[in-house]
Amino acid sequence: MVDSRDGHRALMLGLFVASLAVLVIVLLGLGLYFWYTKRRSVENLLSYAELQEQRFGLRLRPNTVLTWFEIESLVRATNNFSPRNFIGRGGFGMVYKGILPDGTVVAVKRLQESDSQGDALFYSEIEIVSNLKHRNLVPLRGCCVVDENHNLEYRGRYLVHEYMPNGSLQGHLFPTKLDNQYTKKPLTWTQRKGIVLDVANALVYLHFGVKPAVYHRDIKATNILLDADMRARVGDFGLVKQSSISTSLLNTMVVGTRGYVAPEYALYGQLTEKSDVYSFGVVVLEIMCGRKALELSSSGTPVFLITDWVWSLMKSGNIGEALDASMLGDGNCARNIMERFLLVGILSSHVMVASRPTILNALKMLEGDIEVPPIPDRPLMHGHYVMYDGDCSGMSSGCGFVSS
Questions:
Q1: pLDDT for 112 beyond 90
Q2: Range of weakest confidence among 17-21, 248-252, 319-323
Q3: Among residues 115, 147, 218, 377, which one is catalytic?
Q4: Known active-site residue 324
Q5: Residue 305 pairs with which residues in a beta bridge?
């Protein structure tokens, strides 16, 4: 009987140990399963985060000071992007006036659909412009990205800028006709002088006030906006490039707007701070002369280039003839200062890079702190430029320059 009881106890103990071993194995298996599942979930989450970092990296960066708007709020602000709220068309999309719930008036730019190159430009604008703070730059308030998971109607990218009630410099220099009357009065000499100095100060900040320096690459009349006090603000930073990325190197993609693009950049892709100086010089000439940088025939052939026209008048000793007659009646006008502004515009838009001043020296010349030096002659081979048709790898409204 003793042996039978001992055998029974041994059997029960064996069964207990076996059951316990099975339980431990099951628990270990479950533990490993849940650990592996959790690990894969974390890995998937990290992979997704990395993907989002690549696609919308700025949204995840803690130093981004911008507001990320929901598309619904922008739809309400612009009355569903109503034609009545349409302000104009920029280099990268259409701009609408909007009113946020707190009453703030903004300009919402709906960017055109584009490829990965467009995405790169968008992220470049967001990252660089969000850190730029200057009284003569258009403030960027926020942005919005609508991906493929949202309504197809609103899919795309949006920028939200501070609203500039007086529109673009282009609209004031070259107003359209409405009901046989011009929609805007001609700018006075005082206003033009202030605008030139404002733009110069904005570029001084971009070139010397931030590190690394920032090159705008698309300075033109449509990208210069006017606030309620008619102070100029440089905007549309879709083509900005930091000097650390492009210091005096040959760039494979030439971008900009014909008539404003520096010859060395259009021809050879050589981008420096002097590229912005050239565009600035062209804008100064437009402001002082009241004529567009480039005029085309009905067939699209260039018939007028302001840099050549003013150069010819200067060489013949008739530079005063280039001044816009509509500002000469301003009681505050000083013809000698006007002609100095013209000379700075000519020098800044010189075809030779080495002959152009830095934007800082150009500003000092405009303010009369230093004299405008004698303007060097232009080499014969660079004496005249015309536009050509063809692939310019991103240039806005046409292509670059070729010597004729």
A1: no
A2: 248-252
A3: 218
A4: no
A5: 294
